[in-house]
Amino acid sequence: MAKVLGYGIIGCGYVCERHINAIKSLNGAELIALSDIQEERAKETASRFKVGKYFADYNQLLNLEEIDVVIILLPDYLHKEVALKAAQAGKHVCLEKPIARTLKEANEIIGVCKNNNVKLFIAQSMRFHPSWQKAKQLIESGYLGNVFKIKAKNCGYCDFSHGAIDWKWRFNPQLGSGVLGDIGVHYADSFRYLLDADPISVYAEMETVRKEEVKMADNALLLLRFGNNAIAEIEVSLSQREASWEERIEVYGRDGSLSFSTSGKKMEIYSIKIGKEPDGMAKVENLDPVDFTEIWGRLHLQFLESIKENSISPVTGKDGYKALEVIFAAYKSVEEKRAISLPL
Question: Which of 3, 12, 29, 110 is deepest in the core (most CB within 10 A)?
């Protein structure tokens, strides 16, 4: 009988529930324990989801022999400390994005996981969204021809001071990496995923719109060039008042284009390869309704399989590093008022 992997989750905040439901949906996985510095929150979450053990001190969770995989759902500035201890305890590591607060910390995490022979997985959830996977399939099947441009816009207004989610730490340079670390890093990673190429330069403009509330940029526009000569645009904001939160992804190739939103149920495709008309034709692809449990379930299933098969992690430490590299190149671009070249 195949071994059931034991899981522990450190951090019972905003995104925790999605990971819990995902692990509980998988065959071959068992959620053993939770940890949160707020013990009452850990206790309540464990009770609600019928998890047997909970701790205020995550070291107690790491000491459990029955735990094979640790999911770290903490603010950026805590990633390094906890990931290193988890790896040194022989646990495979799943880290919420971004991989770390700095590139140096990211390299340390990658190195310690490698030296302790444990797998490192960065939970870049967009890769596992059906819209992105459908777009990847269409690109690889040649519907668009050679892709030369890709754009993403994800803009809305976030109330930093209201509700259950504490957003402000994300905009403290000692703790997080602003709107780019929160939202932009998704597209930095997903563009690499779609194009199967690395960015080679970044130019950015950004602004802290609500200076009275946060200390880092809450509004940003990035222009990237990739190694395959495709150009890309990332526009993100958490201070943009609109009738509704808007997200849109557009991909353009020599033979067609497609557009979609991860919150929508349709993908618009235009390709000369769809019909016989010489100028192509428009097509609307109906997608399955979005089930976030399914997205995180697919994410954790692929990581679980990579552990059991001893194959490459579905989103590696290098993937996490390359996405974070874009974010820091963007900040450097603003500081130096020029495009920043990236190493290949």
Answer: 12
